[in-house]
Amino acid sequence: MKIKKAAVIGAGVMGAAIAAQLANAGIPVLLLDIVLPDKPSADKPDRNFLAKAGLERALKARPAAFMDKDRAKLIEVGNLEDDLKKLKDCDWVLEAIIEKLDAKKDLWERVEKVAKKTAIISSNSSGIPMHLQVEGRSEDFQKRFVGAHFFNPPRYLHLLEIIPTPKTDPQVLKDISEFAEHTLGKGVVIANDVPGFVANRIGVYGIVRAMQHMDKHGLTPAEVDQLTGPALGRASSATFRTADLSGLDIIGKVAEDLGKATPEDEDFTLTDRFLGIMQKGLLGDKTGSGFYKKTRDEKGKTKILNLNLDTLEYEDAGKVKVAAVEAVKGKPLPERVKALYTAEGKEGEFLRGSMNDGFWYAAKMAGNVSNRLQDIDNALKWGFGWEQGPFETMDTIGVQQVIKNLEAEGRSLPPLLAKMKETGRDRFYDAAPDGTGETVTPAGEATPYQAPYFLLSDLKKDASKVVKKRPGASILDLGDGVLLVEWHAKMNALGEDQLRAVQDAHKLVQDMGYAGLVVGNQGEHFSAGANLPLILAQAQADEWDELDDMVRQFQQTTTSLRFSPHPTVAAPFGMTLGGGCEFSLHADRVVASAELYMGLVEVGVGLIPGGGGTKEMLLRFTDQLHPGQQIGTALLPAVQRAFELIGTAKVSTSALEARNLGLLRDHDLIVMNKNHVIDEAKRTVLALAPDYVQPTPRQDIPVMGDAAIAALKSALYGMHEGGFITDYDLVVSEQLGKVLSGGTGNNRTARVSEQHLLDLEREAFLTLLGKKGTQQRIDHMLKTGKPLRN
Question: Which residue spans traverse the membrane (predicted)?
Fold first, then answer.
């Protein structure tokens, strides 16, 4: 089934954000809400007031709900009295109204009368059982009904829980799951129709139990967040910052409802301290204060205050440090998890108590909330930002060790763990040498493991697919004649290993008869740019010949992605900055994740793009001009556009914006699901390979020469005099302008080669690197992570 148009009923925070994500995916949306006849004025009421307000809220949301605000044009607003009949044109109808069963049942009775008879019908309810909502509806309606529980904000949280009822047609479940994964870019978890479904059931249990253990061991919320955050492979919001973001009233209501709906041994009891905080109205971000309060000091700088749980007053506790966390800094995740789980003192006791609660509960929920262990792990990873789910974490520690600890606490083992003890298995997931693997069922029986989508981590299980390996990069065989260059340094900073891996891969493609090459990875980010510590160290040691050779090599490697005898495809995602951006700019095609933060940001450290980025943006923007404009002063808008993009270090907030900025071309592909990017890039190589013709470097790029330099200098000095740019901004910008002008001495009819512009780039890059102001900027960035405005 093709979903060509959708409807969202309920334009609150969640409904409007879901509509925005549908629009991000290019799906037209009908957004409906109830009528408020007295809004905005009694004499002329706007019957679509609530739907319009919801759309405006989504447009103003931070972080942004829309990948491109133009996508808001795909949303049509209306109301449930005048526009319900328009549901006849919608293939998917999704409800996001108030969490009251009677209201939902009344809505479905009205929807069934007008909706298309083939439409999929869904509820975004986070707590009301799906089967109860469709009681009294026709058999056909119930077959097409399935829960679709998004997590807030829908654009950024990968998880979508799909909840079938006993009467949901399996084909409907398949259709909506495939649409959600491929078109919306979601990570789909099939949940059972039980209280709390998967992520909230286990996640809220963990939050409640962490609060209980915090009181027991005399820790503060800030200390607990240090222990349960990134150090443990979980989101930076950890436990209590997550509670603030969600709303303490929401956490309290969910915990209360789950406490009533679950067995007695599942303790969702809220602590007296938590209840006291709620009663005082400290509900988190929605009220401006919860466990934390954001304020500003006398200089206007943001400061975070911590709630004293004894006095319920806010205090400036400074930067909280926890010894157990400090001891594992810089270590790989498995080492951190093991060390924290076995830590001494009250910190270790807290962690073992709360982690054992989580392990016990996840095992108890296996086969209850979902029928696959992978779905439980994925729900916590995608919904709460964990790096490992509970079963993966138990594998890291050792399942038998976890079982011993649980028994030492006097706990009875859930059936899954009892079976693991009986069989002696120490892992829930086992990899086989040929790349296949197995896991266990909720009953503890071994079963073949099948990843839901293409994952490099699964590919790496077969060592034979690693063709060549360096400490910071690998070359892998993706099958069907396609090689992959994968960087795996910290933040994928670009240095010798990364460049040589690309060069090695080109040679392998030619020598071994491969079809082509993909440059990509599945780290946290594609690449944050060049290896700044190395560059700074070489500059301060006056190793200018080595630096000149390095920049030449970098240019040759980036441009090799275009000027090779085989197709190359870049697969960027996340942070794709500086050199990472330049690699993408030179690929024959780009297959980008929709969440792409791409830009040429070198001016922030007092440099200009030196790997062909400056050249490429000038070439692209001049090519977009009419042939009659590619001469003299008519070129100036293209030069100015490149100058502004690079000179302001503009970074896209999505792949759609990257296309608007010119960083992506019209024929580059945008993929909503980051986990599908490598697979799609491979298909693109195979599509290009049969008729591929090696391009040749351009010799005809029009430049303005001295005329452009004069125009840019005039604008720069005006900005400097007005206080818009600093003294050193002026120095960097003048070098950038020189390159974009094609150098001094050129006349209005000059045309230059790509190599000429690359030479100018390299000269400007090295000139700036030799200046004190640039070295100060690099040093400041490395120490603080922030740009220096000198």
Answer: none
